[in-house]
Design goal:
Helix content: 25-40%
Distance between the termini: 41 Å
Number of strands: 0
Order of helices and strands: H
Radius of gyration: 15 Å
Largest sheet: none
Oligomer: single chain
Length: about 40
């Protein structure tokens, strides 16, 4: 019996590039403040 698989897709309008996510995490860890991310709906 094979293990169950899980597949999740997020609507593209809610996804940010990985590099921007990493930058936001670094900003948060460095400042303890919310990162500045420019959101745009596509």
């Amino acid at each position: 019996m094979s293990a169950p698989t899980h597949h999740t897709e997020f609507p593209r309008k809610y996804v940010i590039p990985v590099a921007d996510g990493v930058k936001a995490i670094r900003e948060f860890l460095d400042s303890d403040d919310l990162p500045c991310i420019m959101w745009e709906q596509v």
